[in-house]
Each structure stands twice: as C-alpha cells, then as structure tokens.
C-alpha cells in the first residue's frame, strides 16, 4: 500500500507535503561509525519484528502452499502443485472469486462515488456542515466487529430495523440471513456504512487543497457545471482518486471482521465467503493450512498484479 | 451541547494559507465562497442531502441504542418500538454479570496500550534514524520498512500462528502484542515529519554540541508533537479495533479483547439474545467515539497525511 503512496508522491503534481530531501542539509561525509551504530540500534527492533512477523511468514506461506500441512501437526508433507490444481478445479472457487469480485467492486465503486459526492456537498457553504462531516466520519473509527454485530440485528428479517421500515411502506423484508445474494448485499452495505467516512475525508481534504480559481475561470468562460466537474475538477482530483482506488481496494479485499461476525461466510456454506475468508476457513476451521496457504498465495499474487496495473495505468494517465 | 466548538473541527482550518488566500480573493470579488453560483433550489437540495446523510448514519446507531435499553420481550415485537418503554438497564446488567465483560475490557486496554506504546516508540526511533542519521543503505532500509505495508495480515497469519503456537504463546498477551508491534506506516509518517523540519535549526543544534538523542528529545520532538499525536491516535484506534489476530490467539477471557469477546457473546446463545449483545456493541463503540469527539481533527490529520499531504 505504502509503495503506492511513495509512487504517488513522486509522480503527482498535487504533492504539497515535504519533498524528499528538505531535511537538514546533507553533510558531505556519509556518516561516522558511531552514527552507523546508533542507526542500527534504533532500527534493529523494528526491522527484526517486520522481518520475523511480515517477511518471514510471507515466504513461509509460499512454502506451506506446496504441502498438506494441517496447522497443528509438526509434519508437513510436500504435495507439489496439488493444492493449486485443486483450487483451480473446485466448484466453490468460482463462488468465492465471484463473491470477492462483487464485494470489492461494489464497495470500492460505491464508497468512492458517494465519498466524492458527500465531499462536494459538504464543501459547500451550508450551515451545520461541520457537524455533518463529523457524523459521516464517525463510523470509520468504530470496530468492524461491533458494527457487524450491530448491523446483523439491523438487518434481522424478523425484528430488525430494515424489516420494520419496509413493513411501514407495505413491503416485506428479504431473508438477509438465508439467501446468499441478500446476505452479500447486507455485508456490502454494512462495509460501506462503516468505511464511507474514509473516502469522504480524503476527498474533502483534496477539495480544500484545489485551485478554486480554475473553476471560476471556467465558469466565466461559460462552462456548464457538468463540464467543470469533468474537465476542471476531476483532473485535479486524479492523484487522490488513484490513491483511494488502491488503498480502498486493498482494505476491501482484506475484510474479515464484518463477514466473520455477520455471516461466518455463509449462508449455504460460502454465500458471502471471500478469498480472505476462505483462507481463514480452510486453515483454521477445516484444518487444511496447506490449502489455506495456497489461497493466501494466490490472493497475494492477484493483489500485487492489480496494484501494478493500477500504478501503470496512473503513469500512463500522467504522461498523456 | 457545545457541539459547535467541539465537533466543529472537521473544518477547513487545517489549511490556513490556502484559506486566507481564498478569503482574500473572495473578499475582493465580494461573493459568498463556494456557493456564489448556487440558487436557493440548490441550497435547499444541499440541506436535504445533509439531513439524509445524518439519518443514514444516525438511525442505525439509534436503533442499536434503544434496543440495548429494551425489555427482552419488547425487542421481539412487530411493529418495532421506537422508544424503549419501559426503559431498562437489564441488558447492561446481564452483560456485565453473566459474561466476563470486564475481563475483555481489561484485555483490550492492556493490549491496545502496550501495542500502541511499542509502535509509537519504534516508529519514532526508526523514523529518526531514517531521516536524520546518515548511514550506508539508508534508502534500502526505508524501502524494506515501507514495503511491509503491501503485505496483508491475512497472508501472514498462517505462519505466524504456527510460530506463536510453537512458542506456547497462544492465549498470552505477548503472543498477541509482539507480532503486531512492527511499525511501517508510523515510520513513514514520522519520517516525513522529521524531514520537513527546518534544516538550519537542526544544524544549529548539532553545532551547539547536542548529541543525537538530545537532538531528538530537545529539538526534533518538540517541533513534531502534532504529527506524533495524530500517529498515536490512529494507532490506538487501530489496535483497539484489531480483530483477526487477537481472535486467532484467544480462546477465552484470559486474553480475548472486546471485539473478540463480542463474538463469543454472539456464539454463546444458539438464538442470539439481542439485548445484551446490543449493549455490548454500544459499550465497545463508546470509548472510541468519545475519543473521536474530542480529538477528531488530530485523527483525521493522521489519516489524510498519507494521502493528500504526501
């Protein structure tokens, strides 16, 4: 995620932050022995933690994906590509990939569009906008598990809030607990409710840093509101949109808490199971850590590929 | 409520130079900022939009809150009661007596504070070394730290689980805290902050003979409090809400945090007894929402610093 941030910092004109080397004037000498030692002492604990608990497991995960390990046994037998062959051949893979795609595209698309819309709305000079800004942002700081449990009851088909509101207009509530499509809908809406504040706040900060004079000039030239939005505003927000598309995508793909508390991946076994949930289910519930590691590795490769494509896409956009 | 002073902080003041420039321009044009071309219809639509947004956020929270104060029987009625009558604190009583709720709170406080302190200290020290000390391979080390953010937790949990289980650290605090203590984002944030400090001041302190640690405490940190506060706040919020790792590490109330404990509560009853569960979610949300109410500007600064500023 952060490599994308560094990228956007390097590539984008919007950077108002500290440029790379504004700190103290670099001294000619490349440091003394005591300085090296001190730097090593300061960095070592953090580096050790990152290596042991981030990079080591990343590699170990790849190794495990070629084994039949069951998470508790000391033995892991090599099975070659069997797990990968199994994953590509299994029926539930299609369902899980489809769930992941639907959930990710819906959450990224809707939360970015709504976040921008709300940022535009609350950038207007309206009374009480600061209060509304706080209200929109507040759900983002609440625990996903708490939000998930709360919204499970909001969507309860028997006694929930949604059922009550629908009944008041004479409609009946879908069975959010039993029907896979509606369960996925429920999880998606809950995730967007909780995380909308993030895209909103980032877009709002970008809007506040934009050049209003460009918009005014375009207006004097007689450009319509829609043209100004597309031709003047959106290009200025492009780096922000790019940054959000990566960070929001990465966090939606990784969602675990909301799905775990709301549906445990169900109904019907995998109605709302995403790739991340499959990793958890196979590894810790079905005790097939080797297979879980395979799914995790596949997911990591997909995420890496998508991020690279996004960065490329952005680079091309910058040049044209 | 003194909301206008407390809540009115999600505002434009975070960008003072821009603000004043715009204000000057507006004064010159003598027009209303941002709404100079909006008619009354647009303004009215704007207010309608604001009301809708507030309802969308507030109604579910209100629903949870009233449910937590309802009698058990009143939760399961149709049409629903929109005000608890009679209001009762039975759910809170049941929550705090029937399950080890305060154990979860204690665990959350211990794990959140220990992890946050570790991350803040390690982040500041790493950032200091990576910005103000000179040593070979500095940019490579920085890259190694930053690239860790690309690796999702969900991919590392399998192997980390095995390692921690082997050490016999499941259901222990160190088993939860230590694997979470490495800090990448905070290092990035603090490094940017340190690099933005005026070089002359740091150079002057060095010439005055300030050692590297004195430089950090007496010169660099006093100029970096706002960023440190922002970093600390988002760390506390993230650790308080952390779910997957504590969930995998904890089987019971010896180490389970509040979000994990809520999941146990949900499991305990075959058919969920919504009253105490809603009371539990309210109590889990409350501390963070209160923190947010008072310190939202600093929190948002920490979040947007990575996006817009850099």
How would you describe this protein?
Chain A is mainly α and 320 residues long. In chain A, helix 9 runs antiparallel to helix 10 and helix 10 runs antiparallel to helix 13. Chain B has 310 residues and is mainly alpha-helical. Chain B folds into 2 domains: 92 residues, no CATH class; 214 residues, MetI-like fold (Orthogonal Bundle), CATH 1.10.3720.10. Chain B is built from 16 helices and no strands. In chain B, helix 3 packs across helix 16 and helix 15 packs antiparallel against helix 16. Chain B is globular. The N terminus of chain B is likely disordered. At the A-B interface, helix 1, helix 2, helix 5, helix 6 and helix 7 of A face helix 2, helix 3, helix 6, helix 7 and helix 8 of B.
SSE string of chain B: HHHHHHHHHHHHHHHH
Structural class of chain A: mainly alpha
- Based on CA inertia axes, which overall geometry of chain A fits? globular
Please count the beta strands of chain A (DSSP E, at least 2 residues each): 0
**How many domains, in number, for the residues of chain B?**
2
Largest sheet of chain B: none
The end-to-end distance of chain B, rounded to whole angstroms, is 36 Å
CATH fold label of chain A: MetI-like fold
Task: Name the CATH superfamily assignment of chain A.
Answer: MetI-like
Short descriptors:
heterodimer, A: 320 residues, mainly alpha, MetI-like fold, 13 helices, globular, disordered N terminus, B: 310 residues, 2 domains, 72% helix, 0% strand
Secondary structure layout plus pairing:
The complex is a heterodimer of chains A (about 325) and B (about 300).
Chain A: H1 2-11, H2 33-64, H3 82-89, H4 91-121, H5 129-137, H6 144-154, H7 161-168, H8 180-208, H9 212-220, H10 225-253, H11 257-262, H12 275-285, H13 289-319
Chain B: H1 3-6, H2 16-29, H3 40-68, H4 72-75, H5 90-98, H6 101-132, H7 138-147, H8 153-166, H9 173-180, H10 185-195, H11 199-207, H12 212-220, H13 225-241, H14 244-249, H15 258-268, H16 274-309
């Amino acid at each position: 995620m952060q490599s994308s941030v560094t990228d956007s910092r390097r590539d984008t004109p919007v950077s108002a932050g500290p440029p790379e080397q504004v700190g103290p004037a670099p001294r000619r000498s490349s440091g003394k022995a005591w300085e090296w030692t001190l730097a090593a002492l300061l960095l070592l604990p953090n580096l050790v933690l990152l290596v042991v608990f981030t990079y080591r497991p990343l590699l170990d995960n790849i190794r495990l994906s070629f084994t039949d390990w069951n998470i508790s046994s000391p033995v892991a037998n090599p099975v070659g590509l069997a797990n990968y062959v199994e994953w590509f051949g299994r029926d539930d893979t299609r369902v899980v990939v489809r769930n992941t795609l639907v959930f990710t595209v819906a959450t990224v698309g809707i939360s970015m569009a709504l976040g921008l819309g709300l940022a535009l709305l609350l950038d207007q000079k309206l009374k009480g906008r600061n209060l509304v800004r706080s209200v929109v942002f507040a759900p983002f700081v609440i625990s996903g598990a708490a939000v998930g449990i709360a919204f499970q009851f909001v969507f309860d088909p028997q006694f929930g809030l949604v059922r009550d509101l629908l009944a008041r207009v004479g409609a009946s509530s879908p069975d959010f607990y039993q029907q896979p499509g509606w369960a996925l809908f429920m999880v998606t809406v809950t995730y967007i409710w909780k995380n909308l504040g993030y895209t909103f706040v980032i877009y709002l900060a970008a809007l506040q840093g934009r050049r209003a004079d460009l918009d005014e000039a375009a207006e004097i030239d007689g450009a319509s509101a829609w043209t100004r939005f597309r031709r003047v505003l959106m290009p200025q927000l492009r780096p922000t949109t790019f940054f959000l598309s990566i960070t929001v995508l990465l966090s939606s793909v990784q969602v675990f808490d909301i799905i775990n508390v709301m549906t445990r991946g169900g109904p019907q076994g995998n109605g709302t199971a995403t790739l991340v949930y499959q990793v958890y289910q196979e590894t810790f519930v079905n005790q097939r850590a080797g297979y879980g590691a395979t799914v995790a590795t596949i997911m990591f490769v997909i995420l890496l590929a998508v991020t690279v494509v996004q960065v490329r896409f952005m680079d091309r956009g910058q040049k044209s | 409520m003194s909301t206008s002073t407390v809540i009115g902080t999600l505002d434009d003041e975070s960008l003072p130079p821009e603000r004043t420039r715009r204000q000057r321009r507006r004064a010159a044009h003598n027009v209303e900022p941002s709404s100079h071309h909006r008619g009354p219809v647009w303004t009215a639509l704007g207010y309608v939009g604001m009301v809708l947004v507030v309802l969308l956020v507030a109604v579910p929270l209100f629903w949870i809150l009233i449910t937590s104060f309802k009698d058990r029987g009143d939760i399961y009625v149709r049409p629903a009661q929109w005000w608890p009558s009679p209001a009762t604190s039975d759910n809170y009583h049941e929550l705090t007596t029937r399950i080890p709720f305060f154990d979860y709170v204690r665990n959350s406080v211990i794990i959140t504070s220990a992890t946050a302190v570790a991350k803040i200290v390690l982040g500041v020290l790493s950032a200091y070394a990576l910005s103000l000390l000179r040593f070979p391979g500095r940019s490579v080390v920085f890259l190694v730290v930053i690239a860790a953010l690309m690796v999702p937790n969900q991919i590392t949990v399998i192997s980390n689980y095995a390692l921690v289980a082997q050490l016999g650290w499941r259901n222990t605090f160190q088993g939860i805290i230590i694997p979470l203590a490495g800090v990448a984002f905070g290092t990035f944030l603090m490094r940017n902050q340190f690099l933005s400090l005026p070089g002359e001041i740091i150079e002057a302190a060095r010439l005055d003979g300030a050692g590297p640690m004195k430089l950090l405490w007496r010169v660099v940190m006093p100029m970096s409090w706002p960023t440190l506060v922002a970093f600390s706040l988002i760390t506390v919020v993230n650790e308080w809400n952390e779910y997957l790792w504590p969930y995998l590490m904890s089987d019971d109330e010896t180490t389970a945090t509040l979000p994990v404990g809520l999941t146990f509560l949900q499991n305990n009853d075959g058919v969920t007894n919504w009253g105490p569960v809603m009371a539990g979610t309210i109590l889990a949300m409350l501390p963070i929402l209160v923190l947010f109410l008072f310190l939202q500007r600093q929190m948002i600064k920490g979040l947007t610093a990575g996006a817009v500023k850099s």
